[in-house]
Structure formats: C-alpha cells, structure tokens
Amino acid sequence: MIITLIDIILLTFMGATAIAILRLRSLFAVVMLSGIYSLLAASMFVALDAVDVAFTEAAVGAGISTVLMMATLALTGERERPAAHTTWLPLAVVTVTGAALLYATFDMPPFGAADAPVNLHVAPRYLNDSFGEVGLPNVVTSVLASYRGYDTLGEVTVIFTAAVAVMILLGGRKGDDAGIKNEPPKEKLADNDGDGDTA
Amino acid sequence: MFAVTAFAVLIALGIALGRAFLGPTVFDRILAVNSVGTKTVLLIAILGFLTERPEFLDIAIVYALINFIGVVAVLKFVKYGDLAAASRGEDGL
Q1: What is the interface pTM, i.e. ipTM, of the complex?
Q2: CA dist., res. B26 & res. A31, Å (int)
C-alpha cells in the first residue's frame, strides 16, 4: 500500500519532469532535468525491487549520460531553436502507439506472477542450480557472467566501440584549442601589434 | 514511522524538482540535481528498511558517490568546458 503510493508519487514526478523537458528551450536545463529523470527512474526501479537495474540506470543515465551531454553542449550551442513545423502528426503517432502498447499490457500476466511464462522457462533452473553450477551468491551476476557470457562479451564490445567513437567525436580536438574556448588563446593576448603573429 | 519519513523525503524531492523546473540560473539547476540525488539516496535507504531489506543501504552509499562525482564533472564543464582542466588558472592565465 505504502509502496504503491510512493510509486504513484514518483511516476507523477517523472511525468512532470518529462513535460518540463519538452517545454524548456535551454539545453543546459534539459540536460540537468534528464539527469533528474534518471534518478527518479532509479528510485522507481528500487521500489519495483530491481536494484541492479536501478544501479545501472543511476550510473549510466544520471552519471555518464549527463557528462557526455555536457561535453556535447560545450561543442554546440545552449539554446534550442523553436520547432519550424507543426507537431500534431508526430503527437498523433506517439499517442496511437502508446495507446496500442497500453492495450497490449492488458494481455500480460500480473506483475511478478509466479506462473507467468517468463518465470517458468529457464528461471527455475537459474534460481535452483546456479549456486551449485557457478558458485556465485547473486543469480543475476551468474546469469550475466556465466550462462550468457558470450552475450555479455558482445555487449561489452559494442559499448567499448561506442565509447571509442564518442571519445573520438568529443575529445578529438586535443592539440589545437582543446578545452580553452572559454578564454582567449595565449597567442592572441600577446599579439599587440596586430600584424597577425605573436612577435 | 518509515512511511512518514518516506513521504517527508518525497515532499522535499518535489520542492527540489520545482527549483530545477524554474531555474533561473545554471547553479540553481545544478544544486537541484544534487539535491534530488541526495533525496534519492535517502529514499533508497528508507525503501530498504520499509521492505525489510536493509542491505539496500550499501547501494544508497554508492549512489551518493555517483552523485558527488557527477556534480563535480558538471561543474567542471560549466567552468572550463572540459573535464581535463584541473590545473588551469593556477599558472596565471
């Protein structure tokens, strides 16, 4: 009962944050609010007993994503241009899709039901045998690191490639004027005679 | 007891959210994010005791670390526009 009430309040906060993100034009404020949204989502996941997911959401959503977005903002502008076209068609598409997804949830088994198909296939084996087969107390860890080891290796490769690509895009300007665009370069300060060199 | 604390933390979370929505300066919003992060840590700790799984407390402490590092990174970006700018400003530039 209390947990349900906390869930409802957290979901209300998340909705309000999403609407504020849509309405604000300052991209810095949008980045900050998306960090808040991630923290609220992490609280929501903890309330739903998915502590591992919540931890990932907080580290990736509120931590790394915010820093990457700030790095992007340092390279681009901080204001969003007003939309040049009407947004009714995308809004209609999103509304219809959301309604269809909501309608699809009516066919799903209740949250946490023990006889749901997803809890009958391999989950009992993981829960019963994983400690004997792998020897780790945390079932999620033994699934990710042992049963789905190759899958996790592929995911890590993808994330590593993405990280390298992002670092090349955002940090590839080291050596010329990397990171000092908030203050005038030293050469220009010394160029008092105006002939283009620093003499 | 824990329920009352949880709702008090949620009210504080709502007030911090209001500051994040309204701004007006950059530092209001950074402080609001930091405050929401702190409230998240408290909420996770309370949820752990509320559902009688106090081992959530460890996770709440790691959240506090993430929150601290994230805010420091954002502040460095606001001041310098770069993460690797630690010693600039000390050499007279």
Answers
A1: 0.84
A2: 11
C-alpha pair distances (Å), A112 with each of A7, A90, B47: 16, 34, 18
Q: How far is CA A25 from CA A17, A83, B19, B46, in A?
A: 14, 10, 16, 35
C-beta of residue B30 within 8 angstroms of C-beta of residue B24? no
What residues of A are in contact with residue B78 (Cβ under 8 Å)?
Answer: 70
Alpha-carbon distance A30 to A66, whole Å? 10
Claim: this prediction has a pTM higher than 0.80: no
Evaluate the omega torsion of the peptide bond into residue A82 and state whether it is cis, within 30 degrees of 0: no
pLDDT tens across B20-74, in order? 888 788 888 888 888 988 898 898 888 888 888 777 788 788 888 888 888 888 8
Tokens of B45: 């700790």
CA distance A117 to A124: 11
- Closest partner residue to B21 (CB to CB) among A20, A182, A186 is A20
Residue ranges of alpha helices (H) inside A143-191 are: 149-171, 186-190
Helix axes A27-47, B2-22, angle to 10 degrees: 160
Beta bridge partners of A79: A26
What tokens does A114 get?
A: 């023990």
Is B17 within 8 Å of A186 when comparing Cβ atoms? no
- Chain A contact set for B32 (CB, 8 A): 32, 36
